[in-house]
Design a protein that fits this description.
single chain, alpha/beta, four-stranded mixed sheet, 8 helices
């Protein structure tokens, strides 16, 4: 059992809260994420207190004080070290594109929404927040391993989607924007959500097939994760 706060592994594991130390590993702090990682053969290490929660070869027992330090939470009984996703752009029928989102919590909620409403893929720009941030992972839960997540260039991905017969819709409040409920469902559809402050870039709108908006009362903007959920519900398969 590891009981020293100064243990080398404890120090290495604790550093994983910081993106610059992650490399090919990251912390999994909730039960659903850990079990989903294990199911997908992407759980590298299991760290536990008192009792092994399930059989796993690379498992380390620690005391509660050490666990509290690593997790930065109180009284966790087990956490994991995950391996990165195997990314691919194998789009099927519903794709959500996230352009430069900066809040990992928003990204996590959108990932969960994709899983709930049948969107098979998410594309993130390289300027988006870190998907291995604990806020994103906790919000996404098991959906993190159920949805195809891919990083790419917006222009290139829109081009690929169109070549594969997708209709691509940017979101934005323009004079020419279509009301969401005036858009008919197509077999293959992709939607673009923009940065929390500035929205979808003008040049991205210009290469999309259409720009759509959500009809609202009393306010003129929505949290991006909420907007994403409404769109995904409306165009779910």
């Amino acid at each position: 059992m590891i009981s020293s706060l100064d243990n080398k592994k404890v120090k290495e594991w604790t550093k994983l809260h910081n993106k610059k130390y992650r490399g090919e590993e990251f912390l999994l702090l909730d039960e659903k994420s850990i079990l989903a990682a294990k199911e997908n053969n992407l759980l590298k290490t299991l760290i536990y207190v008192d009792e092994l929660p399930f059989e796993f070869n690379d498992a380390y027992e620690v005391n509660q004080e050490v666990m509290n330090k690593i997790s930065k939470e109180e009284n966790k009984k087990y956490i994991g070290i995950g391996l990165p996703l195997k990314e691919n752009n194998n789009y099927q029928k519903r794709v959500m594109i996230l352009e430069d989102l900066q809040d990992p919590l928003n990204i996590g909620r959108i990932i969960e929404g994709c899983y709930l409403f049948g969107f098979d893929s998410i594309v993130l720009t390289n300027n988006s927040a870190d998907i291995y941030n604990s806020k994103c992972l906790k919000a996404a839960g098991e959906a993190f391993y159920k949805v195809n997540i891919y990083h790419g260039d917006v222009k290139e991905e829109i081009k690929k989607l169109k070549e594969n017969n997708f209709k691509v819709y940017a979101t934005g409040l323009k004079d020419y924007s279509l009301e969401m409920y005036d858009v008919k469902k197509n077999d293959k559809m992709a939607f673009i959500l923009g940065n929390e402050g500035s929205g979808v870039k003008e040049e991205t709108m210009n290469i999309s097939d259409e720009v759509i908006k959500i009809d609202m009362h009393n306010i003129d903007s929505l949290n991006v994760a909420m907007a994403g959920a409404i769109i995904m519900y409306r165009f779910s398969i």
